Amino acid sequence: MGFQDGAGRAKDGMSHQLNLLDSSPASDQPVRWERSGLHLRHWPRWLDQQEHWLAALERDVPWKQEQITLWGRTHPLPRLTCWMGDPGCCYSYSGVYNTIEPWTATVQDLRQRVEEQVGWSFNSLLLNLYRDGRDKLDWHADDEPELDPAAPIASLSLGACRSFRLRPASPDRQPADTLSFELGQGDLLVMDPPTQEHWQHQVPQRLRLQQPRLNLTFRSIRPQAIRHAEPPAR
Fold first, then answer.
1. Which of 17, 84, 97, 165 has the most CB atoms around it within 10 Å of its CB?
2. In whole angstroms, what is the distance from residue 218 CA to residue 180 CA?
3. Percent of all residues in the chain with a pLDDT value above 90, rounded to a whole number
4. 204 in a domain, yes or no?
């Protein structure tokens, strides 16, 4: 398993293969990947005892399946989610109003560990639970006005490995520029600025996969930029 282009070929200058099943201890130094407008830091198998963390998060997080509106049509989000954050750190996208849930003890522990590793303080977190290979995340960039464009986004993946793909946001770039990681089993991937401005990402379906994958994306909200969306009527 490793870093590949959209056709499964190792990209020029990025042929280093990441063995995500290696049982050797994770390095304190990240593997760095850079392209035009793309800056990534990757710690393979960063979190140990990930089965323990996965079970605790599946059990303790108040998961919900939101309704999303795209192109005028509303349908269930193809994964379970939860938004945690400091007071006032609201976040909404595509018609989804994220109610702020308090930090659980487990998530607070992970938050502190990630902040120490990344060197940044995060005030919010989006958790995604992909129940099996049918759940997915479509192409997008995390570039909503509430998010601090100068802040990194730290993505921690637990459970089954899933493809995490990136492509240039500019339509004049070629599809061959699509990149792919296989992320899971405690991997920590940091997307540094200005990645969200120039690149999009997705988690495509993997229909034969039965195991869950849980992803935590730590973020920085700018309270002064929050759009005051109204929560849905209950």
1. 84
2. 21
3. 68
4. no
Q: Which residues contact 194 (CB under 8 A, 6 or more apart)?
A: 37, 39, 149
Buried b (16+ CB within 10 A) or exposed e, 107-139: beebbeebeebbebebbbbbbbbbbebebebee
Q: Is 143 exposed, middle or buried (0-12, 13-18, 19+ CB in 10 A)?
A: middle
Centre a 10 Å sphere on the Cβ of residue 22 and count the other Cβ atoms it contains. 11
pLDDT tens column, 15-27? 333 333 344 445 6
Q: Are 219 and 159 in contact (CB under 8 A)?
A: no
Contact 83, 56 (CB under 8 A): no
User: Which CATH number goes with the domain that contains 150?
Assistant: 2.60.120.590
Closest CA to 219 of 129, 157, 153: 153
Q: Which of 129, 190, 193 lies closest to 162, judged by CA?
A: 129
**Which stretch of DSSP H or E encloses residue 110?**
helix 105-118
- Asked, for residue 91, whether it belongs to a domain, the answer is yes
The structure's pTM equals 0.84
